[in-house]
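Q: Is it fine to ask for two folds in a single conversation?
A: Yes, each is treated on its own. Send the first.
Q: Here.
A: Result:
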Amino acid sequence: MKQRRRIYEGKAKILYEGPEPGMLVQFFKDDATAFNAKKHDVIEGKGVLNNRISEYIFTNLSQMGIPTHFVKRLNMREQLIREVEIIPVEVVVRNIAAGTISQRLGIEEGTVLPRSIIEFYYKNDALNDPIVSEEHVTAFGWANAQEIDDMMAMAIRVNDFLSGMFKGIGIELVDFKIEFGRLIENDTMRVVLADEISPDSCRLWDSSTKEKMDKDRFRRDLGGLVEAYTEVARRLGILNENEAPRPSGPTLVK
């Protein structure tokens, strides 16, 4: 770790120089943040779980033909990824009302939306990641019309896959946030899925109890965050069947 050059550090991950040009190493931290890092804590084991869950999801999405920056998992906390130019727009897909959409529009949390809704947010912590329209995105040059079409098409496919995957293990996909980047290969550029998909970036509710199994456990001071993430991993088949989930440093299948 000390030998590698640090490229970027975010709230939950660190990017290091990769083993060859065009590659980076993505390190998952145990930091938990909310409200643009106004709330912060370190929760042992969270980064390990997010690394494995995100690896599982990105691998399956790649097999479906969705282009991603993910190459492979290196160890319990690190992934090898392709270097991309991150598009400064977060794409949020909502299936059930929760969080900010309930606050903005006065929709009772838990209301199933008439159809899945896609929203765009400008990635800017200083401005608290404001919601923006497609007009803002194209007018300010954050992405062009074709890139927006590509991101929306991939977001719909990701939503279809995640909804079915989680439904099959007794979990409702309430909403999720994804990011995209521009990947240049052989003098051509394409938009690919980047960042991570984990309980940090999804709202997940147990289908029977509606118990929250995501970062809302931290946002709302519910406790049990690692236990909830561990249960998601166990249902996905990532944990050994005979392993007892532990709140600190759970052992995962390699």
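Q: Second one now.
A: Result:
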Amino acid sequence: MNRRRRIYEGKAKVLFEGPEPGTLIQHFKDDATAFNAKKHEIIDGKGVLNNRISEFIFQNLNDIGVPTHFIRRLNMREQLIREVEIIPLEVVVRNVAAGSLAKRLGIEEGTQLPRSIIEFYYKSDKLDDPMVSEEHITAFGWATPQEIDDIMALAIRVNDFLSGLFLGVGIRLVDFKMETGRLWEGEMMRIVLADEISPDSCRLWDIKSNDKMDKDRFRRDLGGLIEAYSEVARRLGILSENESTPMGGPRLVQ
């Protein structure tokens, strides 16, 4: 059996060489990290849930014409994706004041923002992912003005889709983080959605109770992370309604 060539390992995922040129295999780990991995635990089954939730979201985005790197799911922990040149920016879309925004500006957490706000952060664990402006991005060559416009347009489309998707299952999309990459097709290049979208990268609150259904349960030591992620999967129709989440990872709807 051939050993797969590891391309990159991050905090929550591993990328392996794909079966065809221009493809990669994205493997979801059970690692839970916060504060740039200063806090770290292994939570059994988290990678399985994130793989399936992210698959569901990316496939739906593909279906409505939003360009992504996602091709198909391979198994319970892995996806086949297109190889892209990752732009070194985290794009955060905020609909409700929470987390660092609430702290920075002294806004009460849970306050509805006047409009959705898009923020950029430079991807650097060493620097704790500092917030940057469009001036920084263009000055240091991380993206061109046209690419920034494309990224923002993509972020707005993804936000509109996710807000409606989660609202339909009784979940409030507070904010989310996304990454983008350059997909080269011959001489043509386009900006596509990359990485993952899951409860690891979104703030999701139950509409009725405001209970947190995302990684803040780990960041804030609230417990019940797998139960919260499983509930998100159930509401999206990925995990059976009458099915409990067994140890060793949840059994999911095929």
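Q: Anything structural to flag on that second result?
A: Two points. The two ends are 27 Å apart (CA to CA). The first helix runs from residue 46 to 63.
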